């Protein structure tokens, strides 16, 4: 039978199929191919017992990607959630996060929550900061429900990883989405109650048959990443075209004269805040510090 691993605990992989969830072992493929199945993997499994809902994973289908933190495969998009109010956006941290997930080649959307408390200035600032960057922006309020309909549309049929600092409303958002689902289907959500500290292991929660969310623990600092300083510019997509026009091919876009990136910042063609994030990360990397 075909299914998707939604949870892995203590040697068992919980595989969601059209016949429900089966607790599966994966000994055979471990031994044969040395493959470690991951939450998010699409698998073929044999049913060992319908009564006990047990099975055996016999094949892991090819993955389109594999994220490390959280450890989850076949992610369609990442929603980077932050607050437009309390806590105020920490662009430095957000930009670092964007750099660390860049290599996954997974589309990232920015989800700005708490618009009910947001001033127009802040929404404008956010728009300006990410002008030209390849991130869709959603403005939502979990409190009033504003904007959430569009978010749900964007999640339909996809596996979405929710990431973001603590206190921005990620848990509130997840609860809101599940409440909506319950009201719509008139059924109790199959999701089991989850406390704040149960999000250590990646787990996919299904909003409907093809729509999954993976909640992650809030981050306070963004993880270490090995990037050569000279490659850092490639992580800022909207700066790349300008970097190709710099006078020196090895331009670091920091102190050089005739730097097209810096000129673009001066001309207001790209956001200063993104460039400043580039600059500070470049310094850390050049100093040998891994941020
Ligand atoms: P998490 O740490 O990201 O999971 O954040 P929580 O979901 O625990 O929310 C942190 C705080 O923000 C809680 O007190 C929520 O009630 C509050 N909160 C969440 N969403 C909103 C919102 O849209 N507007 C306002 N005003 N408060 C919100
Ligand atoms: Zn340059």
Could you write a compact summary of the structure shown?
With 291 residues, the chain is α/β, with parallel strands linked by helices.
Which stretches are poorly predicted, pLDDT < 50 over at least 5 residues? 185-199
Round the Cα radius of gyration to an integer and report it: 21 Å
What portion of the residues fall into strands of 2 or more residues? 15-25%
Main beta sheet strand tally, sense and closure? 6 strands, mixed
Descriptive tags:
291 residues; 6-stranded mixed beta sheet; 5-stranded mixed beta barrel; 27% helix; 24% strand
Task: Please provide a written account of the structure.
The protein is α/β, with parallel strands linked by helices and 291 residues long. 27% of the residues lie in helices and 24% in strands. The protein has helices at residues 27-33, 91-101, 120-129, 148-155, 170-185, 240-243, 260-266, 272-286; strands spanning 2-9, 12-17, 20-25, 42-49, 54-60, 66-67, 72-73, 77-83, 108-113, 136-139, 159-163, 204-208, 211-215. The strands form three sheets. Strands 10-9-8-11-13-12 form a six-stranded mixed beta sheet, covered by helices on one side. Helix 2 crosses helix 8 (272-286). The protein is globular. Mean pLDDT is 88; it is low at 185-199. Bound molecules: guanosine-5'-diphosphate (GDP) and zinc ion. The site of guanosine-5'-diphosphate has 15 residues, from helix 5.
